[in-house]
Write a structure and sequence with these properties.
Elements (H helix, E strand, L loop, with lengths): L4 E4 L3 E5 L9 H5 L19 H9 L6 E5 L17 E4 L5 E4 L2 E4 L5 E4 L2 E4 L18
Antiparallel strand pairs: 1-2, 2-3, 4-5, 5-8, 6-7
Length: 138
């Protein structure tokens, strides 16, 4: 079962899927008073307003962070978008980011569909091959 952690300020709930996180630290750079990776809990939604939190979550390139408004229920919003064109971006000292819809065929022949930003490991250190899990930072 996929691990999912939620943090709420009673207006908005931030949802974190650690397995999807590529540790790009865009959340930390966009809103350091909320996203504090060296502290526990690392997401401290009480330190900012809802609009700022939503904007920071929308900037998550991997989709590991999403949110929902508590008044409307668990309709998660993320940086995910279905794109007509596929875009590939080489991140400095990081993963190969592929934006758009794609089918991944694994070595065992199984297939996986992706329709958002997908981070592929370039260094070989990941524990979640072929996807980046941020291990390159160590």
């Amino acid at each position: 079962m996929e691990k999912i952690i939620e943090y709420t300020n009673n207006e908005v709930t931030v949802v974190w899927k650690p397995k999807n996180c590529i540790h790009s630290a865009k959340c930390v750079g966009n809103l350091p008073e909320v996203f504090k990776p060296k502290e526990r809990p690392w997401v401290q939604v009480e330190n900012s307003n809802t609009d700022a939190i939503i904007n920071a979550v929308k900037g998550c390139p991997s989709g590991a962070l999403s949110f929902y408004m508590n008044a409307t229920g668990k309709v998660a919003h993320t940086s995910e978008t279905v794109m007509e064109n596929t875009k590939v971006e080489v991140m400095q000292d990081g993963p190969l980011m592929v934006y758009g819809s794609l089918t991944i065929t694994h070595a065992d022949g199984s297939e996986e569909q992706k329709s958002r930003a997908t981070a592929f490991c370039r260094c070989g250190q990941t524990g979640n091959k072929p996807f980046c899990d941020g291990s390159h930072k160590n």
